[in-house]
Amino acid sequence: MVGDLSEKSFEEIWNGPMMVKIREQFLRGENTMCKGQIAEAGCNKLNYDLLLESNDFSPIQKKMPIRVIPNFDGKCNLRCPTCDHPELKTNAYHSEEFQELFFQRILPGVKQLDYYSGEPFVKEFTFELMRKAADIAPQAEWSFNTNGNWKMTDSMRESLDLINIRWIAFSIDTLDANEYAQLRKYGDLDLCLRALDQLIEYRRSRMLQGKGYFDIFNNAMFHKENWRAFPDLIKFVNAKGIDITFSFLSIPDEMSVLNLSEAERIQMLEFFIDSLAAVKINYHAYAVISCVYHSLPAIERVRFSGQIQQLVRSSAPPRTAESTI
Ligand SMILES: C[S@@+](CC[C@H](N)C(=O)[O-])C[C@H]1O[C@@H](n2cnc3c(N)ncnc32)[C@H](O)[C@@H]1O
Ligand code: SF4
């Protein structure tokens, strides 16, 4: 965390020592502060071209932020055991100072709003923000990660109608209802699958009204508890006509598949190769398989290399970097 608004002013944080150091490191191409995340998620390679034209490449920023992740309370209706986004016990964001800062000074210049933590569609604030941004920041493009545990209402459709949507990613990590309820504590797979269908239908009706297309895809976590779901998830998205990305879980460390024994990782690879023989896979699925493959010693990799090369040849290119998370 680079600062807390209940302790410092926005200016003190935005151009404070931590932010300046991060910017200096990125500008030199030698980032150490987010080294782990960059190695695992390649988050430095996301395509922010849309933002480049208005960027100011200096350690001290005169401009206000142009991309915001608007999670002001961490609120969520589920309690996934993997998640490190606790609800925040703060009222700082409801203060008059914050309202003035966010709605009057930051929001008018924002180009992208990206909901990546907490659950966006269970918070009234998300819909309030959509209504306000329609007036204050009509240029902003929105993206959402959602657990899908909600029902689409007319009021939700009306709010979504007001904004430009880049993409909405669902987080479905298994298609087994019991396993889902464990991985997504308090979650309901049927409710989530219904929300996915409702959103696909909403996109269709939105396009009939002449509004732009937006992408819907599944972003599945991949870890020790759900790796067997991997082939079914790929077949599921293929049948739905949507795309898929994967978060290769490495925190908490004990849930990573890389912590399984070598024999289990070999069994996993054999299972993937068998179950995906006639299935179209994309680059992201291939990247997960490749990670497991490369975790094995060279002597073991030799016997899989022909099949792995076959998977590379048959895998579709990555999603556009812009929509990859
Ligand atoms: C923190 S959630 C917030 C958005 C929304 N509540 C959801 O679950 O999609 C964003 C993404 O992080 C994923 N996630 C949860 N725990 C994770 C972990 N330990 N490592 C990597 N991704 C994780 C979720 O599956 C989800 O796709
Ligand atoms: S649904 Fe999303 S924000 Fe909520 S606990 Fe799960 S991963 Fe975290």
Keywords:
325 residues, alpha/beta, six-stranded parallel sheet, 13 helices, 43% helix, binds S-adenosylmethionine, binds iron/sulfur cluster
Distance separating the two termini? 20 Å
The unique ligands bound to this protein are: S-adenosylmethionine, iron/sulfur cluster
Query: β content, as a range?
Result: 5-15%
The secondary-structure element order is: HHHHEHEHEHEHHEHEHHH
Rounded Rg: 21 Å
Low-confidence stretches: 321-325
Count the helices. How many?
13
Net shape: globular
Average pLDDT taken over every residue: 89
Describe this structure as you would to a colleague.
With 325 residues, the chain is α/β, with parallel strands linked by helices. It contains 13 helices and 6 strands. It has helices spanning 10-14, 17-28, 35-41, 49-52, 96-106, 124-136, 154-161, 177-183, 189-208, 230-240, 262-275, 283-294, 298-314, and strands spanning 67-68, 112-115, 141-146, 164-170, 215-222, 243-248. Strands 1-2-3-4-5-6 form a 6-stranded parallel beta sheet. The protein binds S-adenosylmethionine and iron/sulfur cluster. The site of iron/sulfur cluster has 10 residues, from loops.
Task: Compose a concise summary of this entry.
The protein is of the alpha/beta class and 325 residues long. The protein has helices at 10-14, 17-28, 35-41, 49-52, 96-106, 124-136, 154-161, 177-183, 189-208, 230-240, 262-275, 283-294, 298-314, and strands spanning 67-68, 112-115, 141-146, 164-170, 215-222, 243-248.
